[in-house]
Amino acid sequence: MTSLTIKRPDDWHLHLRDGDALRAVLPFTAARFARAIVMPNLKPPVTNSEQALAYRRRILDALPAGMKFEPLMTLYLTDNTYPTEVDRAKASGCVHGFKLYPAGATTNSDSGVTDIRRIEPVLARMSELGMILQVHGEVTDPNVDVFDREARFIDGVLAQTVERFGELRIVFEHITTRAAAQFVLNARPGVAATITPQHLLMNRNALFTGGIRPHHYCLPVLKSESDRRALLEVVASGNPRFFLGTDSAPHARHTKENACGCAGIFSSHAGIELYAEAFEAVGALQRLEGFASEFGADFYGLPQNEARITLVKEAWDVPAHYPFGSDELVPLSAGERISWRLKN
Length: 344
Ligand code: DOR
Ligand code: ZN
Prior knowledge:
Layout: E1 3-7, E2 11-14, H1 19-32, E3 35-38, H2 49-62, E4 70-76, H3 83-92, E5 95-100, H4 120-129, E6 132-135, H5 149-164, E7 170-172, H6 178-186, E8 191-195, H7 197-201, H8 225-236, E9 242-244, H9 253-256, H10 273-281, H11 288-300, E10 308-317, E11 322-324, E12 327-329, E13 337-343
Helix pairs in contact: 3-4
């Protein structure tokens, strides 16, 4: 296959940041995706609908003239989120879910939820109003091995939440393990997962190839080859519970190339092309459209996009870095060749 035309995709998990950083990264997403679920982990976090609407406006204002893009907003759950916020979010028409960050699990998650029992009234209201819960699924106990944190979260938190709130629609975000893929496959209806390009393309060896590789560090951290294979199997099967969420998470170069480097991989510069590489590698390019352009919209209860994009098999070299305000941004696959290109 040398050309692939699909419905315009959406990114169901994206970090756009704010200010100069937002202006630097947004055009990459808007060139490929019609909509994106925008993560609320700003500093300070987006915890109420008023803030989400203001952030949405800043995103739209940052969009270059002539580009179309619809930000789908989310709110950041804290121990102090009240059920009435769910009603306000629903009424806003612009908020499409609430993000659960276990406190301390990842970048800007300090204000997250310390114990899921604290937000049970909020989850109950979300379930009643059909609002989607997006979950960063890792336990935060520093005694738990970093590679086991997702699996422990399933057994210790997620399984019970899924059963206790039997109608709540839940997206298990950026799954990284065979255990997570299995969990989602076997879960009740209303449970889905997003998968990033890096977790389809790399295993944890990529963190240490020839030395420590900070630009391959994200959370949840890359896992084993067996885990990666399990993710490829579910996406290649065309199961609609699994859909595209890049988790593209830009950080200035110096904050990653640091004695204590930040977690996050920027992938929006090739946010659909990288998936094409992964799907092609397992002979599943015909499954890309469902994963990228159909299953997520269906899960979120939104219409699929009518526009189309075309990918052509024409290699291009990813730049070593992009401008990022007064800083630099090192993208996934920097300095490497990608074989699929977005046709303008
Ligand atoms: O690697 C990550 N980066 N994982 C997350 O959960 C957050 C993200 C970020 O905001 O940088
Ligand atoms: Zn994320």
